[in-house]
Amino acid sequence: MTPLHRDDGFDQVMVKHPQGFEIILVRVAGTVHGWRNACPHVGVGLDWGDGRCLSGDNELQCAMHGALFLADSGACFAGPCAGKALVRVPLHVVDGMIVAD
Q1: Between the CA atoms of 96, 88, 72 and 46, what dihedral angle is there, to the nearest 10 degrees?
Q2: pLDDT mean over 69-92
Q3: Which domains does the chain possess?
Q4: DSSP secondary structure string, 24-86?
Q5: Which DSSP helix (H) or strand (E) runs through 22?
Q6: What is the separation of C-alpha 2 from the centre of its chain, rounded to a whole number of angstroms?
Q7: Which of 49, 71, 76, 100 is disulfide-compatible with 26, CB 3.0–4.6 A?
Q8: pLDDT tens readout for residues 25-78
Q9: Cα–Cα distance between 59 and 21 in angstroms, integer?
Q10: What is the pLDDT of residue 46?
Q11: CA dist 87 to 43, 84, 94, 96, Å?
Q12: How far apart are CA 50 and CA 100, in angstroms?
């Protein structure tokens, strides 16, 4: 298990995995989901350069081409990669810490 972030009530944060890639952590309806920060369209990070890509209650948006993803499933529902999905990072909460498997 690899610790990623303290579970402190965030809506969306960006963290670094020890293997070097960025992970989008997003809380939807009390559940934390983790996604690799890479748009399936061209592989760029979703964020606007500030670590943020949450654009609605259950919506992540790619800053480059505007693709929209469901934050709880990773599915792209609008934009150039509609029908594709973000890559899930398996994680869970242990003693208040979000950890990757």
Answers
A1: 100
A2: 96
A3: 2-100 (2.102.10.10)
A4: EEEEETTEEEEEES--TTT---SS-SSS--EEETTEEE-TTT--EEETTT-BEEESTTTT-BP
A5: strand 22-28
A6: 17
A7: 71
A8: 999 998 999 999 999 999 899 998 899 999 998 999 999 999 999 999 999 999
A9: 21
A10: 97
A11: 11, 10, 22, 24
A12: 23
- Locate tokens 């969306």: which residue? 12
- Token code pair at residue 73: 């499933």
Written as six digits, the tokens of 57 are 């209650």
Give me the residue label for tokens 């972030």: 5
pLDDT value at position 48?
Answer: 87
Residues in the chain: 101
Question: Which two three-digit tokens encode residue 88?
Answer: 């899930």
Question: What does the alpha-carbon distance between residue 53 and residue 94 come to, in Å, rounded to a whole number?
Answer: 25
- What's the pTM value of the predicted model, to 2 decimals? 0.93
Residue type, 37: N
What pLDDT does residue 2 have?
84
